[in-house]
Amino acid sequence: MSIAEQYDASSDAKDARLNIDGESADLPIRKGTLGPDVVDVTSLYRQTNNFTFDPGFTSTASCESKITFIDGDEGVLLYRGYPIDQLAETGKFLETCYLLLYGELPTKAQFDDFSTRIAYHTMVHEQMSQFFTGFRRDAHPMAVMVGVVGALSAFYHDSTDIRDPEQREMASIRMLAKMPTIAAMAYKYSIGQPFIYPQNHLDYSANFLNMCFAVPCEPYKVDPVLSRAMDRIFILHADHEQNASTSTVRLAGSSGANPFACISAGIACLWGPAHGGANEAALTMLQRIGTVDRIPEFIARAKDKNDPFRLMGFGHRVYKNYDPRAKIMQKTCHEVLEAVGHGDDPTLKVALELEHIALNDDYFIEKKLYPNIDFYSGITLRALGFPTEMFTVLFAIARTVGWIAQWKEMIEDPYQRIGRPRQLYTGPTERSYIPMDERG
Ligand code: CMC
């Protein structure tokens, strides 16, 4: 049975009827557990010889998924049904990872077993360290991440057969475990310090901070307030349904590519300033604004149609209400700044005032532009001690679990096919080749 027929069979009785040039096509409407219904257009081409056209996927559900739900109008984000604020307030990042990967919150025994499995895979093959020395010291760490994570498939051949469930599981654990190690190595390399090996007695986030900020010549103790904040930031970024990088991972994976290569593709996509790069851009913007009295000038520029400037950290393709992650990030930002003794940080003052002004401005109200998670994350990450180039890398560590969960869901779907979009062709019609010496 084809995918289209299978979907026809499982759809609700209600159909949408589309009329094209007097011919009609009946398209099944499918219902999810939450969110808008979808018109299943898989049979449209067969029935009418037409494609649908939706370049930015603004009205297109690219897949069926049970992992994450967003209601952008209400500002709701659920991982496997659990609200993001509940998970971030009280849960641990590895608990969220377990939830995203396996569908349920772990029992204590399951959590301990999962944490141990992760801890025992945090080291990377010793030869991988030589990879780093091939990069310039001033390389952007995201460039290093794309290369080194992609290279994992050259080191761990025994977990690249995607048809084998045990290898898929092993690749998932390895990705989750090694990502912080690789990220910390990229950071250490960029500042010319020796790599710090992972410590199994530390939890996921504390271990990451230790690998970033410890040095071999003196003891270093991770501040529990900071490791808790790091953990919460990872939870907030863990998954976000079919965003650009996740869709990239799914598309790359749909051809049967190995998971390490797919995650590397996701990292490349995340790097863009409209996606994961926005936290860096938001902090840069807040620093450029500098003082509260300059805010009106920047608000005016953001509203000016002839000026390409946008308020970074504002607006979202899906959230047309306050990004629920931004609220928790704002709170975490205050906690971290207090803990590091920067409670009166001038950038935070600018951010709070800018948020206040924008939220009361007709332009932003009408366009439903609210702060997104990136508005406060840059200030927070800087206070944790990271340079701006590392911000997107931290996002990549957190999002790895979402990418893996979505990739696994796709591979384990028996009706999965290669992703192969079509196009509206507007180029030249067929014409004959002209030899070079005859061209005018
Ligand atoms: N500042 C000023 N105006 C804005 C902004 C902004 N940040 N964002 C959108 N607009 C305006 C835009 O000019 C347009 O106006 P008009 O209808 O008059 O042409 C309208 O709002 C709709 O914008 P859009 O670009 O069509 O919306 P989109 O859904 O394609 O873009 C976005 C979403 C996130 C790319 C965009 O809001 C943006 O560029 N924001 C700044 C970058 C940013 O913070 N990105 C992080 C996203 S959250 C992280 C993640 O989940 O990956």
TrEMBL record:
Q: List GO molecular-function terms, semicolon-separated.
A: citrate synthase activity
Q: Which UniProt keywords apply?
A: Acyltransferase, Transferase, Tricarboxylic acid cycle
> PROSITE patterns given for it?
CITRATE_SYNTHASE
* One Pfam family of this chain: Citrate_synt
* Catalysed conversion reaction: oxaloacetate + acetyl-CoA + H2O = citrate + CoA + H(+)
Q: Which domain of life is it from?
A: Bacteria
Quote the pathway field. Carbohydrate metabolism; tricarboxylic acid cycle; isocitrate from oxaloacetate: step 1/2
As for family, the record states: Belongs to the citrate synthase family.
Name by which UniProt lists this protein: Citrate synthase
Q: Which organism is it from?
A: Methyloligella solikamskensis
